[in-house]
Amino acid sequence: MSYGPEGPGWWQASDGRWYPPQDQGYAQQPAYGYGSGGWQGQPGPAPAKSRNGCLTAFLVALALGVLAAVGGCVAFVALADDVAEDVGDDLAEGSADEQDDVGEPTCGTDDVGDLEATVDVTNDSSKRSNYIVTVAFSGDGGDQLGTGTGGATALEPGQSTQATIATVIDAPTGTVTCKVTSVQRFSDEG
């Protein structure tokens, strides 16, 4: 402390004394500007900048990003479920024209005890055709046990045959149901 500035950065307190810039012993720096005794001191050091505002903004942005991502995932799962349901409906129905060519399946077992089904296939198209038929097998509780695929080849228009849908699924005890889930018809004419 001094009664006059001794170099750059010195400041004058309200007690009239001059203090060096590094001296932190004075309890409170005087206000900067004109006071009752004239010009009062020099501006004090700028207050320390708080990073809490930046941190808060970052955390809010992060939380919004997470919420948007979760919302997007939920929307995607819901959409995917709807699409899968629609595809499942399409497979169950198939092309009405193709679906009409295949009768209801009869469930049974083959010689080694695996599930199998038989279906009547009639070519109602105007061209020689091949068929791929998929059947789903379900147990007593309605749980799907698996699927099997079979078909018929080179059926002339109006011709019928019986197709066997084979699986490698051991037949469970109890009742088994089966349902045609997909029918695809392809022209056999080159």
Spans where pLDDT lies below 50 across 5 or more residues = 87-93
Helix-strand pattern: EEEEHHEEEEEE
Tally of contiguous helical segments = 2
**Alpha carbon gap, first and last residue:** 108 Å
Radius of gyration (CA) equals 43 Å
Give the overall silhouette.
rod-shaped
What is the β-strand count?
A: 10
Helix/sheet category: alpha+beta
Quote the average pLDDT: 79
Brief description of this entry?
16% of the residues are buried. The strands form 4 sheets. Strands 5-6-9 form a 3-stranded antiparallel sheet, with no helix packed on it.
Helices and strands in order:
Layout: E1 11-12, E2 18-19, E3 33-35, E4 38-40, H1 52-93, H2 96-99, E5 106-109, E6 114-122, E7 129-138, E8 144-155, E9 160-170, E10 177-187
Antiparallel strand pairs: 1-2, 3-4, 5-6, 6-9, 7-8, 7-10
Structural features, described:
With 190 residues, the chain is an alpha+beta fold. It is built from 2 helices and 10 strands; from the N terminus they run ββββααββββββ. It has helices spanning 52-93, 96-99; strands at residues 11-12, 18-19, 33-35, 38-40, 106-109, 114-122, 129-138, 144-155, 160-170, 177-187. It has a 3-stranded antiparallel beta sheet with strand order 5-6-9, with no helix packed on it. Strands 8-7-10 form a 3-stranded antiparallel beta sheet. A two-stranded antiparallel ribbon has the order 1-2. A hairpin with a 5-residue loop joins strand 1 (11-12) and strand 2. It is rod-shaped.
